[in-house]
Structures are given as structure tokens and as C-alpha cells.
Write a structure and sequence with these properties.
By secondary structure, this protein is mainly alpha-helical. It has 20 helices and no strands. The chain has a single domain, classed as Growth Hormone, Chain: A (Up-down Bundle), CATH 1.20.1250.
Length: 497
């Protein structure tokens, strides 16, 4: 998962009413950024850990599959289970902070994430690895949203963007070094170290949490929507089961049962959310055009692109015979492309507006995806690197535009819920996208006896490109092309890039 995927900002947008704001004529005091330097490092470490873990595994998929005696495409469950867990449990983060306090929640998240990493490192089978990845996801679901929330509450608004940029840089570094580090670990040591390196990092994080994390909590938290959470979690899990088992032989009855169960639970949740004061996801926000366009556009875009890096790793390592290290190195141009265009994205949104920019860039993303079908075993390395670089650049524009769009028409009081819904929809669509990509790859593998992974990769990226193109129709439904109300608002939505 690229670093600019992440947009979790619970309770983050009400920056004009923070308790740390100072009167204009107040005497100059120590910079809040300087006073909370340790906190910034702690949150940056959390961003780095999750970004690293989201990208480091892809490069190691063939090696892990070989060690666990399963096919590489079967490893999709280990990837989707982690992302789905993030999607389900992210909405709980604001309530947990209000109820138990930020120090306990963040420390607990670090501990659970490190424990999940340890369990991943000692897993002896794919089911054990999947269970351990779910534990990892439980911890990871709170790392970034709680970290950002604490920074909003602690850092003066005049320095918040600068502090958030520092934290975001570490998230981006995690996405850059993840594939390369994963390839190096697999090639020179053992794949289990990919997960075990999180354990000492987690111990340092627990120490920093005790020293630097401030305590924010409410004396009386709002009631948690337990029933709504269970209905939402059940619907999400059943939808992923449908995506995971599509195409399986003799699975028609099971698929139908899961689909029917998801439809029933989803309908029950819609009815339930209208009757409670504090739902897990407030579906009334979908009446705002920019919100539903952002969520639906995210869904179709990520269905097409979320499994791309896994397919590229399989293409390079299995289809072309590249080593894990070189294949991991080939993922670095994606982050470089993202870094290159990042300073210009807000200007593009201002110049063209959301509708025109998202329409044009979505078509461009679709074309770039389809162009990967031109690659072959004889393609020079620099050409493949150029493709990955361009792909990273256009995806950075796409992610930033989609992420900020969710906030342009919502009141500041609704921004926390809009952010939570956007984050949840984002991770759900990522899990479905990974499942879809591997399903396509498996389907096309049997269509050619000569270079099957090359053939399957080519046709898979073409289909994924066409699916991504469908998002352009969604973005054409936009009417309002306003840019984010303030530079700070734009930065909040893109700070994890």
C-alpha cells in the first residue's frame, strides 16, 4: 500500500478551536513544536511502522509462499486480512480515545501491533499468518488516526502543518524503503525478519509513549454503537469472502450464501444507522454530492490499482526471474514519482478544479495501467523503472485529489465523520482490489502454457485499467469544483502522502 493512501483524520479538522491556540498578543513562548518534539518523533515512528509494514510484505510474497508451501496467489489472504481489519476498526479510534485516553490507546496499539508482528514472524502455516496479520491490523488501526488526533490537540495551529509534514515524511520513507528492505531481507537473511524487526521498534515506541504522549480523554464519552459496529464488520467480512472465493470450483453455494448474508447485514445496518444518535458511519453524509462522489470514486479507483504492486512483484520475480532485492528496488521509483509531483498538486486542483482534474487524471491512470501490458521479459530495466515512476506520479495526483474532495462541502463538525467514512471505504476497497487482482491473475494463468505469468499479468492489468476507467464516470457527476477551504485543510487530507 503506497503511503499517500492514508487519510485517517478523526477529529482533526477543527484546528481553529484547539486548546493550544494562543491570543494574538500573547508573549512569545517556547515553540509548541519544540516542546512536543518527542511526541512528533513518536507519532512519526507509528506512521513509519505502518507504512513500512504495508509495503514490505509484497516483495516477500513469493518467498513466504514457498516457505509455507502455498501458491503465491494464495498469499492474498494474508494481505487482505490486514487491510480489512484496518477498515473495520479505524472507526473505533475516536471513541476509544474519548473513553480510555490517548496514552493508553496509543500504547495499547503499539503493543498489539508488535505482538501481531511477533506472531507473524513465528507463523508455521498460512492460516496462522492470516490470524497474526489480523492482530497486527487491530494495532495498526489506531496508530495513525490517534497519532494525528494527538498532534492536532497538542501543536499550535501555526505550526501544525509543519509538524504534520515531518510526520508524513516518515510515512513516505516507510513506503520507499519497505519494498527495498523486504527484498534485501528475503535475499540475504530470512523472510521472518520482515515481521520481527517491528518488535524492538515497538518496545522503543512503548518507552516513548510513557514519556511523551499527552493524555486526552472525555469525562463522559458518547455511547459506542456496538450493534452498528457488529453489523458493519459482518457485512465487510462477508463481502471480502465473496471476493476471495469468486472463481473457485464448487463454491457457488458458499458464494451465494455469503453474498446474501452481506446484503441482509448491510440492509440492517442502513436501517439501524438512521435510528441512533452516534452511528459508526453516518450515511446521511452521502447526501452531500462531493462526499459520495469521493467515496464511490475511491472505490472504483482502488479496485483497479490496489493489487497492482503485488502483480508487478509476481511478474518480476516469477515471470522474469528477478531476485527479491532487484524487484524491491524497482518499487522505489513509485515513491520518487509521488515526491516529484507532490508540490504541484494543490496548484493543479486550484487551476483545473476537482471535476476536470479527476476526470483527466483518472483516464491517464487507466492508460498507464494498461500500458504495463507492453512489458516483457526482455524489457530493459530503465523502461520498467520509467513506467513505475510515471505510475507513482499520476497516482499521487489521484489520491490527493480524491482525499481532499471528501472535505470541501462538509461542515467542520462533520469533518471527523467524513474522514472516518473515507478511511474505512478506502481500506475496504483496497482489500477488494487485492482480491480482484489475484483473482484475475489466477484466471488468466491457465490461458497460456508459455510464460504463463507474463500472459496473466498483461491481461490482468488491462482489465484493471478498464475498471479504473469506470471511476471517471463517477467523477463526472461532480458539479462543485471548489478547492479545499484552507491550505491547512488540504494539508490535513494529504499529510500521509
Amino acid at each position: 500500500m503506497p503511503a499517500d493512501d492514508v487519510i485517517d483524520t478523526p477529529k482533526a479538522l477543527d484546528v481553529h478551536a484547539l486548546p493550544t491556540d494562543k491570543p494574538a498578543l500573547a508573549p512569545a513562548g517556547p515553540s509548541s513544536k519544540a516542546r512536543y518534539r518527542g511526541l512528533i518523533w513518536l507519532v512519526a515512528a507509528g506512521f513509519f511502522m505502518q507504512a513500512l509494514d504495508s509495503t514490505i510484505v509484497n516483495t516477500a510474497v513469493p518467498s513466504i509462499a514457498n516457505a509455507l508451501d502455498v501458491t503465491p496467489l494464495s498469499m492474498r489472504t494474508a494481505l487482505t486480512s490486514y487491510v480489512l481489519t484496518l477498515a473495520i476498526f479505524i472507526p473505533m479510534s475516536p471513541w476509544l480515545c474519548d473513553r480510555f485516553g490517548t496514552r493508553k490507546v496509543y500504547g495499547g496499539a503499539i503493543l498489539v501491533f508488535a505482538l501481531g508482528s511477533l506472531l507473524c514472524g513465528i507463523a508455521q502455516s498460512l492460516p496462522q499468518l492470516v490470524a497474526a496479520r489480523i492482530v497486527q491490523g487491530l494495532g495498526g488501526a489506531a496508530l495513525m488516526p490517534v497519532g494525528r488526533y494527538v498532534l492536532v490537540r497538542s501543536i499550535d495551529r501555526r505550526e501544525f502543518v509543519s509538524a504534520m509534514s515531518t510526520v508524513a515524511t516518515f510515512g513516505l520513507l516507510g513506503s520507499v524503503f519497505g519494498p527495498l528492505l523486504g527484498g534485501a531481507i528475503v535475499e540475504f537473511t530470512h523472510w521472518r525478519l520482515i515481521f520481527l524487526i517491528n518488535v524492538p521498534v515497538g518496545l522503543v515506541g512503548l518507552w516513548l509513549n510513557r514519556r511523551e504522549m499527552p493524555e486526552f480523554r472525555l469525562d463522559r464519552a458518547n455511547p459506542f454503537d456496538t450493534l452498528g459496529f457488529l453489523l458493519f464488520a459482518g457485512t465487510s467480512a462477508l463481502c471480502l469472502l465473496v471476493a476471495e472465493t469468486l472463481g473457485g470450483h464448487g463454491e457457488a453455494v458458499w458464494i451465494a450464501a455469503c453474498a446474501a448474508g452481506a446484503a441482509v447485514l448491510g440492509t440492517l445496518y442502513v436501517r439501524h444507522s438512521r435510528r441512533v444518535a452516534f452511528p459508526v458511519s453516518d450515511l446521511s453524509l452521502l447526501k452531500v454530492r462531493s462526499v459520495w462522489v469521493s467515496l464511490a470514486g475511491n472505490l472504483f479507483t482502488r479496485l483497479g490499482v490496489s493489487g497492482m504492486y503485488l502483480l508487478l512483484v509476481l511478474f518480476l520475480q516469477i515471470g522474469c526471474g528477478w531476485s527479491p532485492l532487484v524487484a524491491g528496488l524497482m518499487m522505489v521509483p513509485q515513491a520518487l514519482g509521488s515526491i516529484t509531483v507532490k508540490p504541484f498538486i494543490h496548484r493543479l486542483i486550484t487551476a483545473f478544479g476537482y471535476r476536470r482534474l479527476l476526470l483527466g487524471n483518472t483516464i491517464l491512470v487507466s492508460l498507464v495501467l494498461c500500458s504495463f501490458a507492453l512489458l516483457d521479459t526482455d524489457t530493459p530495466t530503465w523502461i520498467i523503472a520509467s513506467f513505475v515512476y510515471v505510475y507513482g506520479a499520476v497516482m499521487s495526483v489521484q489520491y490527493t485529489s480524491m482525499n481532499t474532495l471528501a472535505y470541501v462541502d462538509v461542515d467542520v463538525k462533520q469533518a471527523s465523520m467524513a474522514s472516518s467514512m473515507a478511511s474505512t471505504a478506502q481500506y475496504l476497497s483496497m482489500s477488494f482490489g487485492i482480491a480482484l487482482a489475484t483473482l484475475l491473475m489466477a484466471g488468466f494463468l491457465g490461458a497460456s502454457d508459455k510464460h504463463p505469468y507474463i500472459w496473466a499479468f498483461r491481461w490482468s492489468v488491462i482489465v484493471l485499467g478498464l475498471i479504473t476507467l469506470a471511476a471517471s464516470w463517477v467523477f463526472s457527476r461532480l458539479r462543485d469544483t471548489r478547492v479545499p477551504r484552507t491550505a491547512t485543510e488540504a494539508k490535513l487530507a494529504t499529510a500521509d502522502e
